Every structure is written in structure tokens, then in C-alpha cells.
Amino acid sequence: MYPVPQGGAEPVLLQIGDMALTSTHVILPYGRYPLHGSTWTVQDSTQVTDGIPVVAIVLTIIFVWFCLLGLLFLLMKERRYLGFVSVSVTGPGFHHTAQFPPGPQSGAWAAHATGQARAITAAAPPLA
After folding, report:
1. For position 85, what pLDDT does the model report?
2. Nearest residue to 77 (alpha-carbon basis) of 47, 41, 101, 50
3. Counting C-beta atoms within 10 Å of the first and last residue's C-beta, which end of the chain has fewer, N or C?
């Protein structure tokens, strides 16, 4: 996990994987860095494939001998999600990436979370 802010520190406003944001810092597994001047990016490398599941082929082979309705099993479809969704933060002296599994909502969630992180970063004051 990430380091918990110590005594009287700011609350965590947003957490994306193992990255946490306060109003002035980004907290990573290996330290705490100023949020001002950091850059957030999201990359969606999700690939969606549709195909006939193995169970449909097996059921078709079994039931085609009993009745021709066994061919209806070939109408079954299976959707597979491959790849990953990654969220990266880069700033003065640090770079960190968190990867998330693909899914029907993963890309949209990561884009929304990155947008929130960018808004918090834009409002972050520079540290002296």
C-alpha cells in the first residue's frame, strides 16, 4: 500500500491504484512528492474479441446427433477483454505507473479518475 500521512497531515482526496493524492502531494509506494507540476496520463490498451466458447462447440457436437437443434449452440457468443489500462504520473524526480485489468468500464473509469487527478493537480499550490 501507500504510506499513510502522519500526524495532522492532509486527507487523501483521490486514490488510483497505489497512488494517492492530497491537495499538495502525491503519495507513491516509495515516497511523498509535491503535486504541483506533475503530469497525469492514461493509456487504454484494451482489445475486445468475440468468439464461440468451447462449451458451445462441445454441446453442438453432442446434440447434433439427437436433433438438428444442437446447431443453435453455435449462436452462443463470448466476449473477451485482453490487455490493460495504465495510469501514469510524472513529476520532478519521480515517475510511477499503475496498471489495471481490462473490462467494459475500465477505460472510462481510468479516464475519469485521471481527469479528477488533473483537476486536483491544477489547483495544487507550488511548495516553497
Report:
1. 95
2. 50
3. C
Taking residues 110-115, report their average pLDDT: 94
Which of left, alpha, beta for 8 (phi over 0: left; psi -120 to 50: alpha)? Answer: left
Quick: pLDDT tens for 42-101: 999 999 999 989 988 888 888 877 777 777 888 889 999 999 999 999 998 899 999 999
- Which uninterrupted H or E stretch holds 103? none
Q: How far is CA 84 from CA 48, 80, 89, 98, 119, in A?
A: 11, 12, 17, 10, 24
Q: Provide the strand spans (E) within 29-73.
A: 31-34, 39-44, 47-51
Residue 47 has phi, psi (to 5 degrees) of: -120, 135
3-state secondary structure of 84: coil
SS3 93: coil
pTM for the whole thing?
0.76
Yes or no: say if 86 and 40 are a contact pair by the CB < 8 Å rule: no
